[in-house]
Amino acid sequence: MDDKPNPGTLRENSERLFSFGVIADIQYADLEDGYNFQGNRRRYYRHSLLHLQGAIEDWNAESSTPCCVLQLGDIIDGYNAQYKKSEQALELVMNVFKMLKVPVHHTWGNHEFYNFSRDYLTNSQLNTKFLEDHILHHPETVPSENYYAYHFVPFPKFRFILLDAYDLSVLGMDQSSPKFQQCMKILKEHNPNTELNSPQGLSEPQFVQFNGGFSQEQLNWLNEVLTFSDKNQEKVVIVSHLPIYPESSDSVCLAWNYRDALAVIWSHECVVCFFAGHTHDGGYSEDPFGNFAPRSNPPSLASLGDVAKKLGEMWNNLSDSEKQPYITKVTKLKEKSEKDVANSKSKGKFDGAKGPAKVGQKKLEEEDEDE
Ligand SMILES: [Zn+2]
């Protein structure tokens, strides 16, 4: 955390509308505690399961039950792949999640891809797309199957969007696919190092193998959903494994094309908050502003306090009969759980990538400082 003011302070007259849980980078492995590559950060591989259990017990014991939990990726550690324990480790963590009384929405991080292919994940318990909401008569808000992203509405006028930060990536992808070749091209264009996990000497240090980015297709979809939310005066929370705002993260941990994602978000009024995992130190920052996408009325990113305030205001303006469908909806969700801003600038930049699309060695990101 940086030394910004505490964002959690509520105004005296605000009323809590609903709550939700957030957990990131559980990185479970049946291993003794260890350290990251630099040896400066301890990793509690086995104990992370106990921490998850504790968090779940706390969520379940809340007097006002959270509507859902957002799991921000890296649910098991890449080491599991080395020991051929990926499926076993995932099963253990998922069994702990079964104690949770509310739905959990899973996002995918680099460690998911160290353990599993994208195809495997699509057919696994980590695909929670069935929890998505459909906006009737707006087919443009239905996500494509080419990336793992969706949106849902936990409460009236409030939409959550899960993004796929490894939509552009060299991890977990069929290495003979044109998309893999294209992603490797992008990575190599920005990272001339032999070791593609190394940010050494890079002017844009986020271009490392353990990060990824958002395809134009996904950004176009995000733009459509945000356009809908603007029109309907909704407030939107976005989640992704990778952070997109430099002030709230180590620059090595940002999504490759974080600027493109910010450009889409900043062209809308509705986004109030963005949550990400990956950067283990954590970070918080309010209102990105001024750097690359100036606009007259910027949203407040990553501000929990603002979200709480806005939620309280919105909820207070609803009648009991308007509230009822959402209360019913949450009950149903629980049951269910049981069983362009087409930023041509960036497009041109990526299309112009040159150089050989050589297949890189898949490596665990212990070489890196965080995530
Ligand atoms: Zn990560």
From TrEMBL:
Its EC number is 3.6.1.13, 3.6.1.16, 3.6.1.53. One of its GO terms (cellular component) is nucleus. Keywords: Acetylation, DNA-binding, Hydrolase, Metal-binding, Nucleus, Zinc. CDD domains: MPP_Nbla03831 (cd07396). It catalyses: CDP-choline + H2O = phosphocholine + CMP + 2 H(+); CDP-glycerol + H2O = sn-glycerol 3-phosphate + CMP + 2 H(+); ADP-D-ribose + H2O = D-ribose 5-phosphate + AMP + 2 H(+). GO terms for molecular function: 2',3'-cyclic-nucleotide 2'-phosphodiesterase activity; ADP-ribose diphosphatase activity; CDP-glycerol diphosphatase activity; DNA binding; manganese ion binding. Residues 335-352 have a biased composition (Basic and acidic residues). Pfam families: HMG_box, Metallophos. Monomer. This is Manganese-dependent ADP-ribose/CDP-alcohol diphosphatase. The lineage of its organism: Eukaryota, Metazoa, Chordata, Craniata, Vertebrata.
